[in-house]
Amino acid sequence: MALTPYFHKNVAMEEQFHRFEAGISLNRIFAKGAVHFPKFTNFAKKNTGLQKDADRCKARSDGESQQTTEKSWIAKASNLSEQREQSTESLMAKSKTVAFVIFTVLSLQLAGFLDQGLREGVGLAHFCVAQGWVSQAAFIALNHFLIGVVATSLLWAFFAWNPWPFWILGIIFALEAATVAWMGKSFADFMMPLTEAVRYLWLFAVGAALYISVHDDEPHCAAKLSRWLRMALAISCAAHGVEALWAAPEFVRLVVIANERWLPFPPTENFAQQALLVIGSIDLIVALLLVSFPKPAILLYVGAWGVVTAASRIFLHPGAHGWFEACLRASLYGLPFLLWSMGEQTPTPSDRVKWGKRGVRTRNPA
């Protein structure tokens, strides 16, 4: 009984001891916190200042980079504007050369056509008389009317850069070739719409290029014109090649006359036919190269061969008639020079296939 109060007293003392120990440990923690808390606070404040300095530096660097980017974009824009001005000047100079060549070829071709119309009559007028649509007395009026339309279209095209005179002239030349094929009886007459395709197709091409130039840029328009002119030349070259392989009588006579006067070859029809086989094969190959590989050497060959074939008419038809016949074929030797003056404006089909595999697009060069 006497130990019970003591036990209770001891228990109470033990509890107080534990509380005291716990209090000491808490006081130590608080004391440590009181000692170390200013250090933590100063570190946090220092950290915050560094963060603010970093934010200021970042903002400053962002501003400088933005200014640098703006300066670089301004420099690029100025370079692009300078390049555009230089390309515009070159295009303007090139356009003047192209316009001069177009009007020269057009004037020569129409001079030959007007001489033929005044001397023999326009084929369309002959066709109308043969079909009974007009009388023989009205033939002269219709013939002079067509000649007047051709002369007026030439003046219209010269004073106004307009597609309509080129289209009108193209329609007249196309009807001229179609009427000769309709009324003719020989194979050469039947091939006339193809052998003379360059005479009217290039007029349609120039007119179409002038029409789409209103809705498109000049380099793209020049690329289309270059492609159409090459196709027109290729069609005529291929048709002349087929006619040479067929040994057309006019071609045989031209080769025989050339051998008699200038070339050291036998002036026989047998040799002329063998030579025409080689000439026709070369024409077909050149026609393919005009479409797939239009290099300056190919254009030079086509132009030189066009001069030779046109000059042969001068020696075949002596007098002014031969010169006008050579002028009528001005598109055969004038268009290669026109393409050369325009330069390479469009990729060839083989290049388009090759570039298409690489994923390169060159539709709009601007």
Structural commentary:
It is a single chain. The protein is mainly α and 366 residues long. It contains 14 helices and no strands. It is globular.
Beta percentage is under 5%
Radius of gyration: 44 Å
**Number of beta-strand segments:** 0
Poorly predicted residue ranges: 1-9, 20-46, 86-93, 346-366
Helix content: over 70%
Q: If helices are DSSP runs of H or I spanning 4 or more residues, what is the number of helices?
A: 14
Shape: globular
Distance between the termini: 115 Å
Biggest sheet layout? none
Order of helices and strands: HHHHHHHHHHHHHH
For the record, the count of structural domains works out to 1
Distinctive features:
366 residues, mainly alpha, single chain, 14 helices, disordered C terminus, disordered N terminus
